């Protein structure tokens, strides 16, 4: 987090680059997507974990390519924001993703949400505002990059939900089709912007082989993460996935403070706490609405029943 989480490449980039001096996030992202492509190919073609779902060429470009493109934007914006704001602040901003997901689904996809859903988003938005106002290391450019990243994350998650549910995709097939597109999209800017730096690093860095092993291992872990992300989306819904991702925010904020010792004011901590409580309350409201959708009251109008699945729609697993 998805989602509601930092992208696999951005998180590993910020961690491994400090040890290896490999400060090339686009290249690392390409390595991750290449590993995901190979992993999905082995899982489908060699291990036969899942049968290959045939997709027409026009649907690949109309459905999968936009999701891959938005996924790449999400990764780049995450890396940019981490250069200007602390990890703890960026993770807190990412908690705003459920709100952007609901708003996008309502405005663009015309999905219906009960008033309780909107009310439960109030503490999340309020907590984000309090955290932003009291952030001691606030940077407008990093803040904007993180906020636009929330929109990109929401768009990517909604597109993935539409792809998985509407086309009966499973997680491995999604990675199988998405990862090559993502590699193609990122390879050109990676070569143009970081190619000379990578070549210089290969010639100047002393322990190249162990470093490459670490980078490739992070790519394997990225495949495992991408697989789990799309599996969760397939098993639940886009908004539920983003809310579940917020559960790691508290741990991420604490660990980032322990490692980087970035200053956190009392009101800033309160704002982060309000955001996390809001996410928990939102999950509870979602659970109540889900129960009502599966066990509707006899008095519930038929038009209402037709709108409820849009909030908590489920798809049978393949």
Automatic annotation (TrEMBL):
Its main location: membrane. Pfam families: TPT. Residues 22-282 form the Sugar phosphate transporter domain. It is found in: Membrane. GO terms for cellular component: membrane. Keywords: Membrane, Transmembrane, Transmembrane helix, Transport. One of its GO terms (biological process) is nucleotide-sugar transmembrane transport. The chain crosses the membrane at residues 24-44, 64-85, 115-134, 140-164, 176-203, 209-232, 239-260, 266-285. It comes from the Eukaryota. It is a multi-pass membrane protein. Belongs to the TPT transporter family. TPT (TC 2.A.7.9) subfamily. This is Sugar phosphate transporter domain-containing protein.
């Amino acid at each position: 987090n998805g989602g509601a989480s930092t992208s696999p490449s951005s998180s590993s980039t910020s961690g491994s680059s400090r040890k290896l001096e490999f400060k090339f996030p686009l290249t690392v992202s390409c390595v991750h997507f290449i590993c995901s492509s190979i992993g999905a190919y082995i899982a489908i073609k060699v291990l036969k974990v899942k049968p290959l779902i045939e997709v027409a060429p026009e649907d690949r470009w109309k459905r999968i390519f936009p999701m891959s493109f938005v996924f790449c934007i999400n990764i780049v914006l995450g890396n940019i924001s981490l250069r200007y704001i602390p990890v703890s602040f960026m993770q807190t901003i990412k908690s705003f993703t459920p709100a952007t997901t609901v708003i996008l689904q309502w405005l663009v996809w015309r999905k219906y949400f009960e008033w309780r859903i909107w009310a439960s988003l109030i503490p999340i938005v309020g907590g984000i505002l309090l955290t932003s106002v009291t952030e001691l290391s606030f940077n407008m450019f990093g803040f904007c990059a993180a906020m636009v990243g929330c929109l990109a994350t929401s768009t990517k998650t909604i597109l993935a939900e539409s792809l998985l549910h509407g086309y009966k995709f499973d997680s491995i097939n999604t990675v199988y089709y998405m990862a090559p597109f993502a590699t193609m999209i990122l390879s050109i800017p990676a070569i143009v912007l970081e190619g000379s730096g990578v070549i210089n690093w290969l010639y100047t860095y002393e322990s190249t082989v162990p470093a490459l092993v670490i980078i490739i291992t992070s790519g394997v872990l990225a495949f495992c993460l991408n697989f789990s992300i799309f599996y969760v989306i397939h098993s639940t819904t886009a908004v539920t996935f983003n809310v579940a991702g917020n559960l790691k925010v508290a741990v991420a904020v604490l660990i980032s403070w322990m490692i980087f010792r970035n200053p956190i004011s009392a009101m800033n901590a309160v704002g982060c706490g309000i955001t996390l409580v809001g996410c928990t309350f939102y999950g509870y409201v979602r659970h109540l609405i889900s129960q009502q959708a599966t066990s509707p009251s006899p008095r519930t109008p038929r038009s209402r029943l037709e709108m409820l699945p849009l909030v908590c729609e489920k798809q049978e697993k393949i």
